[in-house]
């Protein structure tokens, strides 16, 4: 765990995932009476069955009986296995523990992969270790999205502007949070890690937000893969942020903290005043909105749906894949295509709404020239 935190600078979520995986592995070792450094491939394989069924070690379920309620999803099985294999690779490299040699096999990279790099012909003799145990991942289904009507219902459920009185009602902070997720496609952790100095607005040029890698958020949220990027935003989002800042100043927040270098999304009513929001607080807010809005929004929606909706809307509005890739912060365009390549072929999505109108105010053209 310390190597992940310090040596690999892994995110808190990654560390927690590895910890859960190794905990499950140690429970299996104890139940099976195995020493951790004496594992063989035959003694490793029942671990997959335990994960899939949730049954105790040694219980053999008939195929017709199906998996028990204690089993985990196949994607989780893959994560658990990958973490355990990485654990043994580490101990093989650092301490010479031989278990990894029993759980990996050597072979040519190209023989096992359908993906061929552009310079693969220069790598003819390269062999590398690959896991002897592979968990087949199921085909990824279409990413869930919010329709424009559902998105608007959520935003209005947070706060509304009364043109007659010129006043906002509700929580401008909550509306700004979801409007930022919607218009920028940020991950929740990236959004919560924003500081006011990351918002470059009110200077006469095109407003934009900088996604800055940092590790000082009390909840441990961070920018994935530490990738800096700039995202241009609409005048509407700029005005919403300005309104929020004015409301903070009305409560003397600028006297309590250095507001320019403070977190954008902070506690205002519950908890420590002006303390940075935690992801759990946002999920509590999502739950409250679901109860309040009822059937107007999907029962399963989460903050990450805004990211899927952002990418989907841009592609259906005609944005190029590389522009979407840069806004989302993907490492390469292939990741974007793997996740959203189906979007432009989905006839139902195409007719669902006027996506060009939905994205009309977003500053996407600047992405192509930045």
TrEMBL record:
Residue ranges occupied by any Core-binding (CB) domain in the UniProt entry = 1-92
Gene3D superfamilies linked: 1.10.150.130, Intergrase catalytic core (1.10.443.10)
Q: List, alphabetically, the InterPro entries matched.
A: CB, DNA_brk_join_enz, Integrase-like_cat_sf, Integrase_catalytic, Integrase_recombinase_N, Integrase_SAM-like_N, Tyrosine_recombinase_XerCD
A GO BP entry is: DNA integration
Keywords (alphabetical) are: DNA integration, DNA recombination, DNA-binding
Keyword DNA-binding present in the record's keywords: the answer is: yes
Tell me one Pfam family matched here.
Answer: Phage_integrase
Task: Please list the residue ranges annotated as the Tyr recombinase domain.
Answer: 141-354
* Taxonomy, superkingdom: Bacteria
Q: Which GO terms describe its molecular function?
A: DNA binding
Family per record:
Belongs to the 'phage' integrase family.
Provide the protein name.
Answer: Transposase/integrase
Task: Give the originating organism.
Answer: Kitasatospora phosalacinea
Name the lineage.
Answer: Bacteria, Bacillati, Actinomycetota, Actinomycetes, Kitasatosporales
